[in-house]
Design goal:
The protein is α+β, with helices and mostly antiparallel strands. The chain is built from 7 helices and 4 strands, in the order ββαββαααααα. About 15% of the residues are buried.
Length: about 150
């Protein structure tokens, strides 16, 4: 799906029902970056059921493309296939950077980076979603924010 405007989050849930935010999807001129394609790439590529849940956090407008729609475009013109490959490569790079940040940065460093790239968006997100995205509790996020003088 292509996000024309709005805010969506994806998350997974463990066996105890705890949610872990994987990604925020947004199209906003308030952010220094945008994440416009709302998809589970694993599901798209394997055609197996998704383990992710997508939650609309604000009113959204989406352009929806099925797997068959995408495959049909690929067959119509190789430029579509090239464009699809580029989108998948960019999504992989973004995901890899996110996971590397989680592994190599402290939650405070990760929060500072989040604020740098999505300053106004962070104000719109519920704090428990930001905490889940950072892999910390809401209480820990409050402490992090205090040390950042917020």
């Amino acid at each position: 799906m292509y996000l024309n405007f709005g805010l969506i989050r994806s998350f997974i849930t463990n066996n105890e029902g705890k949610e872990f935010t994987r990604q925020f999807y947004f199209n906003s001129n308030e952010a220094n970056i945008g994440n416009l394609f709302v998809t589970d790439l694993r599901k798209l590529l394997t055609q197996k059921p998704s383990s992710q849940v997508f939650e609309v956090l604000e009113d959204c407008e989406l352009e929806v493309f099925s797997h068959d729609d995408i495959t049909s475009l690929y067959h119509q013109n190789h430029m579509w296939e090239k464009l699809g490959r580029i989108f998948i490569q960019l999504a992989y790079i973004q995901m890899d950077e996110y996971y590397c940040t989680l592994l190599t940065h402290t939650p405070k460093e990760h929060y500072i980076k989040l604020k740098k790239y999505m300053p106004n968006l962070c104000k719109r997100l519920p704090q428990y979603h930001i905490a889940s995205f950072l892999g910390v509790s809401p209480v820990t996020l409050s402490r992090i924010k205090q040390t950042c003088n917020e």
